[in-house]
């Protein structure tokens, strides 16, 4: 049929006969070609210069700009202009309007949150994982990355003395890890107690109304959040009082479990905390493991903060019993000094992942499972994930276990030292002896009845004002919290470059500001 066109050809327009031409921006906007690779090198060099000049070498933890000013200024920025400008101009805008008003987590005066300064090796790894853009859901998207994540997870399981057969996955942090632990705990319990496959059948009426999980009243809010997301409701979380050391009270736990049994409820999990957000308190993990074993409950340990003790021979005893937990949440973007986000979920018995697994023909077909292909999507509540395991891998290899352990041990020692400073200052009150690297204290205004005497309302008003004014001045970023219903301040010490001299300066600023506020009697009298 020479000379005759097919029906498909006859339907094509003349323009369709031409090959599509790549857009002119493609040559320099992507890695892979000479022009794109050169453009990448120039952009990274410029970004590095901007980061150092507009962020890393700036003085103080924050410029003090308020949120209304920032909104007004950033409202004038174009987000999707019709025509692009040079990367140099764009990064200059970022430097002036974003980096200049960003919190400098590396500054010794930034002592508010569990928000660490990242190590330089981790920043180098961040560059590599962003540039390679591996997606951790299937092996054919991230071959070496998938195998390395498995290796890093194995090393983490070893760090917490988990047995052979343990498994895990990298997560976005403690919130995701805690949710994953309670998801598996719920489904595991329902299978054993009600012979019900929640993944396919959903929650039965008995499970939906009577399942309960227990944690201390100092546990992270993500226990309640997870209960909500799991369809149990926040009322399914039973809060147990803490003892004088801010740890879960074992006698109260025992009586609570007995009461739940008497009421016909079904406790399915105990959530222990290894490092509470405010005090760094660590629940008695071995005793909780005993209770979980006796009652056939799942023990999940939220070690997002305190899990870093496992890398230190000196601090490791604080986590005694954690190896008996059914699951562990650990954050690398806290005391392991990794850029956000970087967390892990560890599972003592990897076979229990069966409660989560599912297969998709286009992603992780069953024949891959049979062949042992590492499609990590089966272990996660997410599909697309970043290659975050590269960051701790590079950091651990660059600094060594002892190098990281030295940093963790130092900030814990620093917390003890600054607590001693607070004890000797009459205007300050230490709220609890530090367990890890968090120090909670408050300024005690004088209401005229003598040194350190003041009403609760006055304490609230002055301490909140101290925190707000120091932030506005850019002198220090302190955390605010409440202890026994009264406002308090908190130093969260994660930075190994912070010294006791730096913290003395912060405490002096707190006292000076408190005294200045007291001279304005309206602050006290209106409380």
UniProtKB/TrEMBL annotation:
Modified residue annotations for N6-(pyridoxal phosphate)lysine: 334
Sequence segments annotated as region (Disordered): 1-34
GO molecular function, one term: carboxy-lyase activity
GO biological process, one term: carboxylic acid metabolic process
Gene Ontology CC annotation, any one: cytoplasm
Transmembrane segments: none
Entry keyword Transferase: yes
Domain of life: Archaea
Keyword Calcium: no
Keywords assigned: Aminotransferase, Decarboxylase, Lyase, Pyridoxal phosphate, Transferase
Cofactor(s) essential for the protein: pyridoxal 5'-phosphate
Family to which this protein belongs: Belongs to the group II decarboxylase family.
Protein name: Aspartate aminotransferase family protein
Native organism: Haloterrigena salifodinae
């Amino acid at each position: 049929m020479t000379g005759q066109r097919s029906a498909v050809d006859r339907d094509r327009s003349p323009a369709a006969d031409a090959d599509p031409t790549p857009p002119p921006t493609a040559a320099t906007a992507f890695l892979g070609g000479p022009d794109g690779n050169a453009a990448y090198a120039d952009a990274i060099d410029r970004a590095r210069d901007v980061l150092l000049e507009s962020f890393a070498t700036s003085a103080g933890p924050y410029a003090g700009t308020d949120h209304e000013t920032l909104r007004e200024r950033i409202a004038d920025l174009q987000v999707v202009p019709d025509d692009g400008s040079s990367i140099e101009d764009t990064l200059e805008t970022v430097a002036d309007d974003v980096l200049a008003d960003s919190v400098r987590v590396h500054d010794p005066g930034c002592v508010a949150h569990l928000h660490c300064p990242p190590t330089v090796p981790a920043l180098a790894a961040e560059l590599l994982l962003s540039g390679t853009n591996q997606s951790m859901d299937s092996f054919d998207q991230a071959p070496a990355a998938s195998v390395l994540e498995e290796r890093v997870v194995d090393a983490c399981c070893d760090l917490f003395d988990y047995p052979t057969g343990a498994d895990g996955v990298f997560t976005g942090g403690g919130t995701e890890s805690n949710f994953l632990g309670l998801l598996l705990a719920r489904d595991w319990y329902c299978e054993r107690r009600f012979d019900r496959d929640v993944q396919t059948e959903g929650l039965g009426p008995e499970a939906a109304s009577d399942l309960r999980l227990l944690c201390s009243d100092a546990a992270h809010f993500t226990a309640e959040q997870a209960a909500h997301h799991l369809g149990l409701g926040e009322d399914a979380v039973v809060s147990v009082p803490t003892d004088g050391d801010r740890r879960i009270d074992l006698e109260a736990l025992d009586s609570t479990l007995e009461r739940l049994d008497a009421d016909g409820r079904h406790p399915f999990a105990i959530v222990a905390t290894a490092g509470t957000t405010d005090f760094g308190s660590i629940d008695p993990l071995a005793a909780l493991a005993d209770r979980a074993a006796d009652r056939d409950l799942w023990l999940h340990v939220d070690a997002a903060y305190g899990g870093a003790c496992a890398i230190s021979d000196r601090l490791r005893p604080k986590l005694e019993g954690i190896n008996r937990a059914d699951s562990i949440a650990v954050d690398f973007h806290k005391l392991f000094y990794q850029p956000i986000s970087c967390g892990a979920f560890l599972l003592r018995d990897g076979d229990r992942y069966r409660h989560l697994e599912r297969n998709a023909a286009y992603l992780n077909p069953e024949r891959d499972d049979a062949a042992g292909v590492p499609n990590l999507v089966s272990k996660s509540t997410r599909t697309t994930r970043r290659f975050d395991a590269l960051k701790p891998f590079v950091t651990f290899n660059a600094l060594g276990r002892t190098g990281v352990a030295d940093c963790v041990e130092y900030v814990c020692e620093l917390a003890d030292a600054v607590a001693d400073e607070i004890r000797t200052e009459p205007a300050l009150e230490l709220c609890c002896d530090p367990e890890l690297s968090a120090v909670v204290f408050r300024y005690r205004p004088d209401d005229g009845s003598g040194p350190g005497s003041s009403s609760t309302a006055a304490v609230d008003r002055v301490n909140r004002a101290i925190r707000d004014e120091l932030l506005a001045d850019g002198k220090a970023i302190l955390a605010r919290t409440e202890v026994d219903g009264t406002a308090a301040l908190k130093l969260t010490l994660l930075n190994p470059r912070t010294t006791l001299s730096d913290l003395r300066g912060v405490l002096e600023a707190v006292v000076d500001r408190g005294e200045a506020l007291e001279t304005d009697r309206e602050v006290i009298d209106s409380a």
